[in-house]
What we know:
Layout lengths: L6 H24 L6 H14 L3 E2 L4 E3 L2 E2 L10 E5 L2 E3 L13 E10 L2 E10 L5 H19 L7 H15 L2 E2 L5 E3 L6 E5 L16 E4 L2 E3 L5 E3 L6 E3 L5 E3 L2 E6 L2 E4 L4
Antiparallel strand pairs: 1-6, 2-3, 4-6, 5-14, 6-7, 8-12, 9-10, 9-11, 11-16, 12-15, 13-14, 16-17
Helix pairs in contact: 1-2, 3-4
The site of magnesium ion has 5 residues, from loops.
Amino acid sequence: MVTRKSRGEIAKMRRAGRIVAEILALLEEALRPGVTTAHLDALAERHIRASGAVPSFKGYLGGGKYGSGPGAFPASICVSIDDEVVHGIPGERVIREGQIVSVDAGAIVEGWHGDAARTFIVGDAPPEARQLVETTRLAMMAGIGAAVAGNRIGDIGAAVEGVARAGGYGIVRQFVGHGIGTSMHEEPQVPNFRSASKGLQLAPGICLAIEPMFTLGRAETYIKPDGWTVATRDGSLAAHFEHTIAVTEHGPEILTVA
Ligand code: MG
């Protein structure tokens, strides 16, 4: 079921979103060759808790469930490097010059979620990597631009796909955007591509995470033996951007901004 959020509920999501945006800004500063991905995770978790929020990802089992055993996501952020698309687990891995590093973060304020991701370029990277990253960001913005009342979910996917096609990039299809609210993942799904069904009509109060994932090569992915990390099958670079937005009477409002 797709729920429409009240102004008060969106205000809480805006607070969660601000914390997520602050994390990404903090990590952009911290991200340099030589730091470990576990260090980035520690900085993020400290900021979330210091802000009185709870990490959305820590202990996540999928399907809106949390736990502490095997299978639960062990960290507060996902860090996905180069050919990794999403859901990379932070650890002792060291960031190196020239990598593209996607960071996905989520925070919960009074039960309401914010979810956002950015792909950062560490130092100098080849032009094709930079272009992939910038195009993925532009596609996210195009998708957000289509998230207006009266449009349909399919209009978002069409806008994102149009940008990918113009750049000749692969669009990851196994993972898509989603509704968001009191759960990180709610209905509806928000594909990053055109589909036969135009989908739900958008109305004020609908909150969505719009998150294109593009690749330099083919779009097929696999999950690494850690059970979480999604990577491209052909080893090509991947980029990921995400914002949480609310559909309002005045157009889309990005909630994950500082
Ligand atoms: Mg998401």
